[in-house]
Each structure stands twice: as structure tokens, then as C-alpha cells.
Amino acid sequence: MTSTFHGLETAKRSIFTTQTALNTTGHNISNANTSGYSRQRVNFTAARPIEAYGYSHSTAAGQLGTGVEASSITRVRDKFLDSQFYSEYKWLGNYTVQSDTLEKLETIVNEPSDTGLQTVISNFWNSWSDLSKTPESADGRAVLVEQTKAMMDAFNYTSKQLTDLKSDLTENAQINLDNLKSISSTIANLNGQIQRIEGIGDDANDLRDQRDALVDELSGLANIKVSDLSDGYTITMGNVSLVAGKSAEGSQGLTLDDMTAAIENGDLNNGAIYGTMQSRDKYVQGYVDQLNQMANTIANGDIQVTIPKGSVLPEGTVLNGVTYAGANRTLAEDLTVTVQGLNGLHQLGYTMNGEQGEPLFTDADGNTDNLTAANIQLNPKIAADPTLLATSMKVTFNADGTESVVAGNNSMAVLMSQARDTKFAFDATDKNTINGFFRAVVGQLGVQSKEMQRLQSNQKTIVDQVDSRRMSVSGVSLDEEMSDLVKFQHAYNASARVMTVIDETLDRIINSMGRVGL
User: Fold this and answer.
1) Phi, psi of 448 (to 5 degrees)
2) Which of 40, 66, 369, 432 could form a disulfide with 436 if both were Cys (CB 3.0 to 4.6 A apart)?
3) Quick check: 275 and 93 in contact, CB under 8 A?
4) Residue 429 — pLDDT band, cuts 50, 70, 90?
5) Residue 235 forms beta bridges with which residues?
6) CB of 301 closer than 8 Å to CB of 424
7) E strand residue ranges, 2-159
8) What secondary structure letter does DSSP report for 365?
9) How far apart are the first and last CA of the chain?
């Protein structure tokens, strides 16, 4: 025989359980706009039924139910979708950084434009062409000096911008690495908190949400693998351990040199850190190298020129293995030779003072070897005295054995202006004009930037799709929660009504039975 108060206990359990469901629904509604929150669900189970005790099986009509209990409150979460998100988000972090870097490179190169490097190079060639028409003109020489300085300034400034961008990327890589360490440490701390709470039988739903949100962020920084073990998440980057249960020691000592080594051995192959370092070492450094190659090639790269007959080469000039001295300095016919860039060509001519031309480009110390976009400049001697620009290739021999330059001769100025269309040897296999080489660099940058923008756009679409699928499972739907709210409210009211009925029944038994006729 069941207890007289059995119905009260059953109704009470229903009220308490339904109240738990109402509170959980309210918690879901409150966090509908909380990033990383997973909706929670109360799991209902029928309470353990009872049977009248006895030495033999009860004659009661089966076991009597004792109501409902909230066995647990769990998150609605799909681990497969989480894993998919980590896998796709690392690509987005990588492509976003590289796309941003290429966009900045396009801004630095700034082509086509009226102020870019290509324009000042064209102005340099045009100045030589103008000077060839009036080789004795002081104004023409002054203009050429200023246009050459402008071209050198453009090389120097572009190189500085690229160097600054490279430094910024290094700094950003360090910031991302510090962020990775901080996130790993926080995840390890959450692992410990979750283990303690769940050790007493509760589900640490909100702490798990915080941890998963951090893992989402971490997956954008590097390629990670997440394993959910008994002591919490274990997270690795290739063979590098970032988090192992309550410990994040594997990640705390990492440096940028370690990241470089991780890229080389394949442990780090994606994410924002990888993208930042690849942008620095592949794109920015690549364009620094090409700009340096361009600057040094203008000054020293092999070019083939044809020196007109009648030209008089400076004493002791060596061309194609032949030394020109004495009487054979005067060319009886056109001579096609290879010279070392505009420096080598300029030294075949004569200045207004009748002296052999100086190297046109040097560094600050006057050296001509290993010129780069950062250190190349107009020879300081020529910058100070434009008469040292060599425009003539003819001299007259005086009776006293001296020589006088033919100032009106423009052979060197013409050869210098024609170098615009001359192919320079940028390396053993690549021969191109200066303008052609730079156009190829600009075209390559445009293609790379467009392709990276396409990859980023496509990857963002994929990430959004995966996240949308994940949110359809874990996200809070206000319509669904309001529907549950009404459902649980009715259940709560009904449970309260049951308790009222039982109370009235007991009142009749306790207070009214045995009082007949009184």
C-alpha cells in the first residue's frame, strides 16, 4: 500500500523539475546573443517507481510511478561540426593575413600612377633623351640630376616602406604568438575547473562554452588538433604540444624562431601565424629582393650596346677582352660590346671637363658593388657638379699631346637614352628591359593579390556555412525557446493543480472523516 502523501511528493517533483526547465529556458533566452554560447537542455527522466514491500510479490497493479526528475542539464553541441570549423577556420586566418599583406604591397608599389616608380624611371630616360638634343645645356644637366635623384629617392623610399612592412609583420607574428600562448594557458586553466566541477557529477556547460570559444580563436592562429580526454582538452600543433590537460607548458616557451622551425618541418602549416610569416618571408622579402635586383641591374647589369664609329674610348678601356690604348682608341667602325650597366656605359664617355665619366650610381661611401634599393644613389660627385655627366664620346688630340672633349657631341647621351629599350641581364636566364622587368613585377603582384582575395572570399563562404550549420544545432532560437517556455509554464501550472487536488483530498481524509453526525 502506498503512502497517503505519495501524490504530494509526485506533484512536488514535477513542480521542481519543471521549474528547472523554466530557469534553463530563461538562461538560454538571456544568452541568445552571447558569442560562443550553446543552448542548454534539461534531460527529464521518470523517477524510480515504488512497489509495496512484502515477502512475496505485491498484489498491486504494477509499480507505481513517483513522478519526474531532471537527470542533467547538458549542452546541445556537435563535435563533428566543431572539428570541421577548426579545419576550415585555419585557412581563413591564413588567407586573410596574406590578402591584407598583398593589398598593402599594392599600395606601396602604387602602379599604375603618376607618382609611382615607373613614372620616375620614365622621367629619368626622358631627361637623357632631352639632354642628348642639347648636350652642352646646363639646364638640361641640372634637370637630369634632379630626375635621377628623384628615381633614387623612389627606390630608397619604396625599400624603406617594404622594410617597415616586414617589421610590422614580424611584430604581428609576435602578437599572434603571444595570443596563442595566452589562449593555451586559459584553456588549460579551464580544463582544471571543468574537471573539478564535473568530478562531483555536474555538467560545466558554461565553462565548456568558454573553452570552445577559445579553441575557435586558437584554430584561426594555427593548425591545431583537439582531443577531448578524461583530463580535458589536449591540443597539438603538428608534433608540438600546446595544451595537455591542466598544463600549457609546451606552448609557453615558444619563440618566433621556433615558429620558423615549425614551418620548415611541417608542424606549422596554416593559420594567421603561418600566414603572417609567409607574407613576410615570401611576399614582402620577395619584392624587396626584386627591387634590389632591379636597382643593382640598372647600375651594374650586363647590357649590349653599339658604340658608333668615330668614337674615342678612354685610355686603357677594356671591352670584350680588348684593351684600347693609343691610336686604336678611335673606332673605325661601329663596335657592339657588353658593358656592366649604366655605370659601365657612363664610364665610356667624357665629361664637360674632358675627363672620363664616373660611375653614375654608387652607395653613400662611393662603392658600386652590391647596390640595393635601400643604398643606391646618384654618385655624390655628379650630384654636386652636373658637368661631370658624360654626354660626349669624342675628343680632339692637340699638338702638345693633350686632349679636348668635343662638348657638342651627344653619342653617350644618345646611348644612355637608348638604354630604355635595351635588355639588361637580371640573371643568367632573365633578360628584360628595366621597364619590362618592373611591369612584370607589378603584374605578378596584381595576379597574386587577386588570387588571394578570391581564396579568402571562397574560404569565408565555407567557414560561414560550417558555422551556420553549427549554430543551427547549438544556437538559441527565440521562437523555440518561447514555445518551450509556454510548454513548461503549462506543465508547472498543471503540477500545481495536481498538488492542490491532493491537498484537498488529504484535507477531506484528515479533517472530515469520522465526523459524521457531529
Assistant:
1) -60, -45
2) 432
3) yes
4) confident
5) 226, 243
6) yes
7) 40-46, 68-75
8) T
9) 30
